[in-house]
Fold each of these.
Amino acid sequence: MTEFKYIELFAGIGGFRQALDRLGGKCVFASEIDKFAAQAYEALYGEKPAGDITKINAKDIPDHDLLTAGFPCQAFSVAGKRLGFEDTRGTLFFEIVRIAKEKRPKVLLLENVKGLVGHNKGKTIETIILVLNDIGYTVDFQVLNSKYFGVHQNRERVFFVCIRDDLVEHEPWVIEGNNVVAKTKKRLSQLDDVKTFNFDWPEQGEVTTRLQDILEDSVDERYYLSEERTEKLLARLNGNHEGETDKFLIDDQGRKTKKLKPLDISPTLRREMNGNVPKVVEPQFTAQGRRYRIRRLTPLECWRLHGFPDEAHECVKQAGISNNQRYKQAGNAVTVNVVEAIGRRLLPWLEGFV
């Protein structure tokens, strides 16, 4: 396997790096402004990422084949105010453009929340694609859900694959279905001179993961809720838990009454962990009969929900990063398995076979 070089912007805890290193990639530059994410990144990879990308001269970034970026999503997320490019975090997309225009990598692989596709009635994604076209890249995009890639989390994200114009034949998108991606592509296809192609996206077939398989066997008492809080949460379920003989989840402090069986998957983990960590309801059988205990998912379980190996979590834990920050950084991470699946299909461009 031929080695390819890549950079990781808005690196977080290195979800892209976890995946791409498995495929023979070599990270030659990373940037992350968040203090705790940078600490985790250094603990994991032995390299401290550069800080504020807006203060880095593009000429000083090493040459690379692939630029990756999970650019800040709060400006487009349904969990935020959805201000888009009016939000300073939204304008950080143009830092990607600035660097790509200078360094001319073969491929850009970008990730963001699904909400970006329909944001501002589609004008935001139109701007993104036309700007990428303008600097010499042909674009395809798709929404992928982590649950189809061996990850126990319902996490939909939009991915952009952008190939340098000289490496790909332009062709109209093949559009199937009537979902938000199909509708957006139909509209964008009507634009003059838009440059598109059809990437071989990994399939989203059957969900084969089992949530219970990644739960820890023994969990510290600090993760369990008090009896009082447990009773309040169970009361909100309106008795729907009765008859359960196995573990199941409730989300957002019980505000949602839909229960998730062990064969199902976790709700999307958020960066904002203020009480929003999914909670496991565990039936226990005693001499007095069945009782229930409720606990939060542990930081390790949250990392597993993004495809990170246990040793990566242990490394960050040993670095002294708090439980809260480990929750937070996991909730903000790109899903490793999805990036790896896309990366395998990018190898022909990265290794020079195209």
Amino acid sequence: MPIREDVALSQISTFGIGGPARRYSRVSTPRQLVAAVLEAKKNLQYYLLVAGGSNVVFADLGFAGLVIQYLRSRGGVEVSGEIIQCEAGVSLGRLITTAIKNDLGGLEAMSGIPGTVGGAVVGNAGAYGQAISDHLLEVTIFDGKIERRLTKAECQFAYRESIFKTPRAKHWLVLGSRFKLTTADSKVLTQHARQIIATRQKKYQPGLRCPGSFFKNVLVADVSQRALQLIDPAKIIDGKIPAGYLLETIGAKGLKRGRIKIADFHANLLINEGGATATEVKKVARLLKARVFKKFGIKLQEEVRYLP
């Protein structure tokens, strides 16, 4: 397992933020991932597991231990009828493309979402009415001792949540997932996927240094009646209040603090204009959360994760 020293985490982050990792290694298969983690534990070394580098904010001080990045550029996807078995290090985009080519639907609305399948499973990623968990059958994990499989129910999926984000699963490794999709016309799926990507590119312009949507949309079920009276009903989509809508109403669009700017075309996008720090990000996040709470009484929650 090749090890590099003092690698800037900003280089593997879509946000372009993060200090140096004292040691860094990239692995591409479940076996290599397990071996790397077991070796780190054997040597009593702190380790941090990352994937595609989206949806995270790395610390300004970096990480004093070993950063293991799990990415697979080739292979790792097997199709059998309506069943797809996919390794966690495969990009979500490649999984979706493979499904479409095999006339399988159920994932195409997530086209254009960056990151890996493993990361998508951990965060129960989704978009436009679809979530990665919708058609998921089971997840293969390494629990620190053995490799085993969890059913969909055991994964405890909720909106942008799963058991993998709980303390219980702190040392679990997501190795792969199995999906059962639905038969569909690949031409129709391709057209839908292209429309989704075109829509996303208006928001996530190529080369934009951002982690993706910063805050989670808000479940209507979690909001008080008083707060709902302040919300335009037309803005509620699939039982959720878009965080971008809430942020827009408090004047977030175009707001700039230090080297962090809120996109003037979407209020839930924090952009690194160059040389921004995690400290600046957290300061802006606190400001936005305070303004939304003051106006609506709603506590926004980050969709991004602060690491370590």
Amino acid sequence: MKLWQLSAAQASQAMAQGTLTSAQYTGACLERIAEHEPLVRAWAHVDPELAMAQARRCDLELRRSAIHGIPIGFKDVIRTRDLPTRHNSPIYANHQPNEDASCVATLRALGAVILGKTETLEFACGGNFPPTRNPHDLGRTPGGSSSGSGAAVADGMVPLTLGTQTGGSTIRPASFCGVYGMKPTLGRIATEGMKSYSVHLDTIGLFGRSVADLRLLANAYRMTEKPDASPPQVRGLRIGLCRTRLWDQAEPDGQAALEAAATLLRAAGATLSELTQSAQFEDINRYQDEIMQDGGRSAFLPEYYASNALLHEDFKAKVHNHLGLTPEMMRKALDTVALCRIEFEQAMDGLDAVLTLSAPGEAPPGLHTQGMATFNRLWTALQVPCISIPGMTGANGMPIGMQLVHRRYDDERLLDVAQAVATVLDTRERVWN
């Protein structure tokens, strides 16, 4: 195994044992980037000299945490004090913040190597598309808006990245790229210093090569309380199978993948029961979009007033309330989502997790699309934690993720269940190009 192929958890253990240095691991990742970035185009900015200087300092310091010396990439809507933050927007073409976002500052203080900034849809919600390609098929989208974050991990360029999710921007690219992705409970990771869109929805997302990798980040952000992972056995798990009220919008490959995953889990001893959603959930995706678009009315006012000529029409439309949202509509959207959240969390009683699709199917061809957030919007609206587990594939051999969901603040339990479920669903023999 080459050094860049090590997961973050494997590299962390090797560093703790003194058999691997941060400089060796970071250097291997930079070599992989130099080789594959011209094809995948996952990075908005990488400074190899700065990254290696950080890694060498890490090797001279006492070990601060389990992510000490581990290189990490950050979606380019998250501020970094020593790397540009451009938001894929001409307005910020030369923008260099003077401080880190909270999520970056936390990891930097724990000894992480800030490797670079990953490509994103403009402001993570519209406008200019990123140039990033899916590493499994360069003619297909990696998903968005955390396009570069998902693709960089999938291609072996970096073991961990941070993205964001306001609709489906972490779970969907994790599904399309065949990596592990986590959208935590809203507010579990501070969003200070990321480009805001909707305070009711904005969430920092996590990408890794395994559940153990996600757990390293979850531990860093104090989302877990146990020092060591102790996942349950699959046998005896009680899982709700939720096709949602949008099942007819899943592609045949997606529907088949979910049924196959359910069959595998039953064979491994899990008990699966149907979790249906009431009529109250019928329009929850529309309500999520209204909540999100209402956030855009104020989120892009600074750019609208200061840089109107450079601001994409997508964002001008949001400022101008292109959906015609009224106070009555917003109260209804927020109140209905709140009632759905109560219904869902009550339905979780007696269940260890809910299993559903991460995306409608395989990544679509072309770079003109980010894919549909059909099976993400509702969970983002409910503010609950979600994890996408790779392992299933469609007719074209492209990844299709399976999404596990839990109640708010049960992030740690969700990680435990995901680690168990992954032993059944993710049995891939990874062949790196």
